[in-house]
Amino acid sequence: MNLFGVLEINSSALTAERERAEVTASNMANAQTTRTPGGGPYKKQWVVFGTERPGKSQFALTLSRFGDLHARGVKVEQVVEDKAPPLRRYEPGHPDADADGYVAYPDINPVEEMVNLMGAAQAYQLNVSAVQATKAMISETLQLLT
């Protein structure tokens, strides 16, 4: 694999981790949302990653070899709603309480979501470091050639 292929893979991973962080932040922001436009409480969302074969630009095709055609990247396959039932809390004075006085809240654990967000941030930073290392290798290679 050439160094430009490494940059393409890191770029796709950066995009996927950014979306993971956005979805996790949305989960945290809606942890107390009891009413959505669709009805009922907010449902936690999960990001499902998959692999992809990145599209080759003309420049990358010119520089690539046969081995580079098998390079893969990361993509977000889908964002799915959690199937867990909502948490029910007894709050008879709440405007969204049912006839028995219970309010349905999203089943979102703020600690778990914070750990997910920290994981996404660390994965993002690792990919940034890989991009910087790859750029340094490309720069050193160009200096050797001149």
What does this structure look like?
The longest helix is centred in the last third of the chain and has 36 residues, at 110-145. This protein has three helices and four strands. By secondary structure, it is of the alpha+beta class. It has helices spanning 3-29, 58-63, 110-145, and strands at residues 45-52, 73-81, 87-90, 102-105. It is elongated, with a radius of gyration of 22 Å. The chain has one domain (3-145). The strands form two sheets. A two-stranded antiparallel ribbon has the order 1-2.
Order of helices and strands: HEHEEEH
- Fraction of residues in β-strands: 15-25%
Rg, Cα atoms, Å: 22 Å
Integer tally of domains: 1
Helix vs. strand class = alpha+beta
Proportion of helical residues: 40-55%
Global outline = elongated
Mean pLDDT score, rounded? Answer: 88
Residue runs with pLDDT of under 50 for 5 or more positions: none
Question: Helical region count?
Answer: 3
- Biggest beta sheet summary: 2 strands, antiparallel
What is the total tally of β strands? 4
How would you write the strand order of the largest sheet? Answer: 1-2
Distance between the termini: 23 Å
Provide the descriptors you would attach to this structure in a database record:
146 residues, alpha+beta, two-stranded antiparallel ribbon, 47% helix, elongated
Write the layout of secondary structure elements.
Blueprint: H1 3-29, E1 45-52, H2 58-63, E2 73-81, E3 87-90, E4 102-105, H3 110-145
Antiparallel strand pairs: 1-2, 3-4
Helix pairs in contact: 1-3
What's a quick, concise take on this entry?
The protein is built from three helices and four strands. With 146 residues, it is α+β, with helices and mostly antiparallel strands.
